[in-house]
């Protein structure tokens, strides 16, 4: 089968499409024929070597986390994710992938393959951040930083569905788009400082910058979470915030199970969440997809199809 791999850490140019044996499912696993796989910033972090303390130095390594495809044992359309916490010879950027059976779920019937793949990581991350980590309640003011990003745009939709009053920070070119997602207030982040903003009950950060300054904009009893903690500065800020107890900056790693995927599917079924796909690339153009990941101007997910 075809799979995207790399033999050394580096930029998009290290990626290559190789031919590898098709994997076999073991006990408690499923073999999935991949119909679409999303491209995530996590893929670029792994490829660059930033996480080599986790992924190691044994090559080749594969890329890709979330996917939509066919469970080969049942013929059922499924969506799910490869574990983000270990190095894989092949990831979801391949024709087939083997994953634990409790990390896939039936794909929402209303979604296309590419739409489903685009929503797995961003959707489950946003849902976990709002419902489980910060426990958003109806009527609360929720500030979302990076509201036009792949996680932020889903967070806006979900926060509205949970009954929150949503204030969204985004770039000027994206304000109308974020408004279309349901945000009650849209603010050009270039025109304000954290001190200019009204206090919020919940802050969802997707940028990983100025975390302590934004934390100070929490109301009494407010909660904050960041989903972008890949830099040393972000980790330092998160650690420093622990002295604030319940008002600390929280974070988590997303590896959705069947139940969480089913919960997300419920929001899709009610129409409260929909994916946004920017560009679809054939798998053999994965290098181009990774280059596009860092280029300005795209809105929504980049998705690969075999």
From TrEMBL:
SUPFAM superfamilies, alphabetized: GroES-like, NAD(P)-binding Rossmann-fold domains
Name used for this protein in its record: Enoyl reductase (ER) domain-containing protein
Enoyl reductase (ER) domain segment(s): 10-304
Superkingdom of source: Bacteria
Organism: Actinoplanes awajinensis subsp. mycoplanecinus
PANTHER family xref list: ZINC-TYPE ALCOHOL DEHYDROGENASE-LIKE PROTEIN C16A3.02C (PTHR44013:SF1)
Positions of transmembrane segments: none
Pfam families assigned: ADH_N, ADH_zinc_N_2
CDD domains: MDR1
GO molecular function: oxidoreductase activity
């Amino acid at each position: 089968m075809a799979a995207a791999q790399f033999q050394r850490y580096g930029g998009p140019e290290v990626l290559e499409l190789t031919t590898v044996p098709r994997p076999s499912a073991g006990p408690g696993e499923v073999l999935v024929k991949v119909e679409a796989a999303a491209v995530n910033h996590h893929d670029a972090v792994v490829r660059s070597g930033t996480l080599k303390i986790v992924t190691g130095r044994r090559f080749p390594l594969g890329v890709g986390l979330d996917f939509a495809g066919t469970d080969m044992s049942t013929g059922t359309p499924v969506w799910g994710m490869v574990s983000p916490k270990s190095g894989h010879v092949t990831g979801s950027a391949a024709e087939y992938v083997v994953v634990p059976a409790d990390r896939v779920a039936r794909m929402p019937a209303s979604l296309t393959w590419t739409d489903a793949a685009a929503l797995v990581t961003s959707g489950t991350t946003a849902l976990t951040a709002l419902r489980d980590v910060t426990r958003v309640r109806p009527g609360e003011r929720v500030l979302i930083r990076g509201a036009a990003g792949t996680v932020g745009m889903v967070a806006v939709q979900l926060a509205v569905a949970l009954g929150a009053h949503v204030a969204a920070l985004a770039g000027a070119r994206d304000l109308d788009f974020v408004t279309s997602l349901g945000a009650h207030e849209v603010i050009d982040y270039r025109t304000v400082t954290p001190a200019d903003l009204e206090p919020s009950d919940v802050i969802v950060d997707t940028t990983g910058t100025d975390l302590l300054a934004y934390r100070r904009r929490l109301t009494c009893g407010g909660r904050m979470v960041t989903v972008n903690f890949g830099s040393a500065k972000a980790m330092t800020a998160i650690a420093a915030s622990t002295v604030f107890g319940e008002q600390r900056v929280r974070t988590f790693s997303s590896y959705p199970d069947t139940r969480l995927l089913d919960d997300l599917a419920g929001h899709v079924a009610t129409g409260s969440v929909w994916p946004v796909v920017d560009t679809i690339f054939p798998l053999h153009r994965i290098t181009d997809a990774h280059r596009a990941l860092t280029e300005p101007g795209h809105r929504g997910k980049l998705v690969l199809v075999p």
